[in-house]
Design brief:
single chain, mainly beta, three-stranded antiparallel β-sheet, 6 helices, globular
Length: 709
Amino acid sequence: MRHLRALTTAALAALALGACGDPATNPSTEDAGGKAADAGTCPYPCGTNCCQATESCDFLTMSCVAPCTPNCQGRSCGDDGCGSVCGYCGPGTTCNGTTCIACTANCAGKVCGSDGCGGTCGELGGGCPSGKACNAQGQCVCMPSCAGKSCGPDGCGGYCGPLGGECPTGQTCNEVLGKCQGTCSPACAGRECGADGCGGFCGPLGGECPTGQTCNEVLGKCQGTCSPACAGRECGPDGCGGYCGPLGGGCPTGESCSAAGVCQSSCTPSCAGKNCGADGCGGFCGTCSNGQTCSAAGVCTGGTTGPAACTPPAPTYSSSFTAVQWCEARAKVACDRMARCCLLAPSRHAACVAHEVRICEESDMTARIQAGATVLNLASARACLDRESQRFDCSSSTMTGLVFPECDSTFIYRPGRSTGGSCLYRYDCIDGLCDRANASCGGTCAPYRQLFESCDTSSQFCDPEAGYCDYGYCASLKPTGASCSAGWECAVGTECWGPSGSKVCTPMIAVGAACSPGQPCVAGHRCGGANGTCVPLYSGQVGHRCTGNDGCQWGLWCAGASSYSLGTCSAASATGTPCIAPIECGPDSFCSSTCQRRRDAGQVCQQDYECKWGLVCRSGSCIALGAVGALCGSDYDCQRFLRCANGSCSDVPGGIGQSCSSLAQCASGTWCSGGLCAGQAADGQYCTNNGACLSGDCENGTCRPSCSY
């Protein structure tokens, strides 16, 4: 769902009132007609103007405009003179300006555009593939992309800038940005072909290789010609560093790629008896620690124990859940992970699951699924949680979340109610607009707001396929090449991309297509893979290219990436290796100038992160998180879902006025606000978030009643 931006009419009116002044002391508050806006006496303020009773304020220009009377006398279609139309023509007819007349669709020789009779030509609804535009002859032609560029190619065989794509003496062209930059030093050391990083090429053949060889752009070496082997294959590698199939070597959600390169139905991870190595579905059964290695049987051998300070309990998650058990299954995955990190005692696992279910149910998820208001794609949901259940992650920011692309809400949920159907939330409606009174249950699914109609960002949404909310009105999406400030302004299939201050709407690059660092790939993909193509998130293997850590498989990190060059997916660095970020050292170690192994209970420490998961650093030593009854100074000394009360860890939830934190719960009917448990508000009372309300539903600053389908 596209994000929408708007200033409401009320906000604009407030701005207008703020601009009004006293003409006696501020002569600039008079317009050409001498009508001055005075904050105290002007009944119809409009910027610095005061409108007449018969006029209205145009909030786009902040000027007073006379009322417009539509003129449709003798007209059945066409312009009404006030920005609207007198009517629409039916199939097989077209408007000659005033009247609907019969017409014959004509698409002879056309692949796009209008058929002259209200319809369109071509297979793309009159449109063209990304990067092309429809000309007057109905042909898709390349659309030069030179907005914000001063040099380099225009994408259509021509060049940008006044110097035919070149730069002034002493400068070179950064072809990624299309900008002339200061003198660049070519990087051709050890390279015999390919780009030199300064707009030129390496090697005696202008970047090319002798006949029969191709250039490995990553290494800058000429290699024997490789013929991709994709005959009969719809996924997996092509044998030449690339991939087969339309999904960059991958398969649709719920399927996996077999050794024969065929997408097969739902893959069940095979981790029985394993604690490391591949799970057979593109994920892992775990990682080895402290000098251990993974055997062919998937068992960690040698070394000592792993990054956590306890024996991981058996998981409670099972992939056999039903649609109405989605919230419970998702909660079990999060709490199982917390237990593997030795942060959750077995006795508090049920409390953890209840807490995570409550978060999932804040929008009545199970009731919506049962009522058919939300349709859950069970295969996609299982594929998401099956992969998530294998992820070892003790970071507080991502431990309970869903990070893999299979878990994108667009794959798992879809609205179930059409226009006119009953609804409680906008997410129930296919058109995304639930029309309901602010303080009552129930509503009706309504169409999106159309172009030029009023809109806002709380309930009156523009059709995201056609427009966006701009200063209170639905404006048309911007075409390729138009200046932009955010992605929601751009046409479907494009993204707002480029240097800060000169971004333009740019076509997103398709899966498997070549790309450069920072260029926008289609949703759920990044530039990477073996040769710099758009590939799924978290798919990069060791040695693959990447733009960030989310381009590599979980547990790997992206080394050497920058705004202008791709990095490389790398395994965790060895102990003693210089480091900058913790991820470089893997889950078994921490970064302190060099990678160092996490420490066991009783060993010397200075910070919590130096100890294994499940331990904290207190008085210079790693000690275990407190169980019920253990001494404590704060909630952070206790295991999750315990609280520090009167100096000891307690499993009794806090009452009103008692301390609380993000790690400890308050009693039923209360919530944690500013470090203290506070009573929840009743229906109709003021609120700041869902947790503040007994109903669990805070909307526009007011607690809404608990509603049921």
